[in-house]
Amino acid sequence: MKMSIPDPIRFKLLDAIFPSLDARFFHVVQTENWAQILSDSVRGEPVFIPEEEHAQSLIGLAEAIGIASPDGIIKGQKFCIDYLQIAVDKLWEQIETRLRPFNRATVVKMCFNALAELEKDAEHWCMTARSQLAVHASQSEVLEVAEERCGKRDAAALVNRLLIETAMYACAIADGFPFPHSEHLEILAHMQNLVSTANHRDAISAGFMPAEIRVFPNGELDVDDKFYVSIMAPYVQAKFADKFQSWAGYYDSWFSDYQSEENPDAVETLRRLEEPFATEFGVTIDQLVSIPNSFGRHARKTNSLILEFNDAAIRSFLEAECGASCFGGGDFPNAVLAFSASSVGPKTCRRE
Question: What's the predicted TM-score (pTM) here?
Fold first, then answer.
């Protein structure tokens, strides 16, 4: 016997199961992210810094500095800043010493692979923002979970990038050992503690935080975190909430037939910028914008997320693929060579 559910009841069931109309559809979308395109897995597998590595990293630090009072309390702006600066220097020394035996290329590659997984995870959360808000009744809980994930992702991305910069001068160039995963996690923890310690130093120096530190025997530092809790945290939460909502509003752009509206003001601004930009930097805006895509196409051709070039090879590549022969002189060689151990994603380079 076939039974049909009256429409009013069926609609109530649908409303109970899918609180939002946006949750009633299954979409297939496209990505232009090279980390996604070249990866074997769709979902990112990000590596965050374990809490136990944070604690382990600090063991012995207080003893190595050795200037805290018997009760472990340091008071006064100058004394606090001096202590934290020594702690920063000691952590830098530990990081550089730990990196010295390892081959530079293996360290850089591992960090860039980690950044690619973090990028894939970020894109997944961006792509599913609207569905998360549609499926779950409590938007505040969605934002809380997403913000926590974003915080871990940002912290891991920052220390991996710092580790790449440090490896460029601290690691062995030609020889050296392969970089194991366990060492990667441990040095990331050192770097994260260095950043936190430097933040405390700067906050006390600027008067945002009371000049008092408690140093525990295991090396941990306890500071008055009211500035972080009452000022920084609400600001970060509000900024992230805006960003998450913008992700949800950005959802339509993932479809292949999406066309963004052209902004006449932006077009005119770029037109006026073209000539002075080319005069100043020796390259057109179109050539500059095409560089990441050219590296991406090359990565897809070689099926490798990480590309390696020497000086001559990268100049030849840029000239052949982007028509950027002008990169051969002036102030640009250092900036271009920053791609020599880069992932295929865009990398911000500074003119020296």
Answer: 0.78
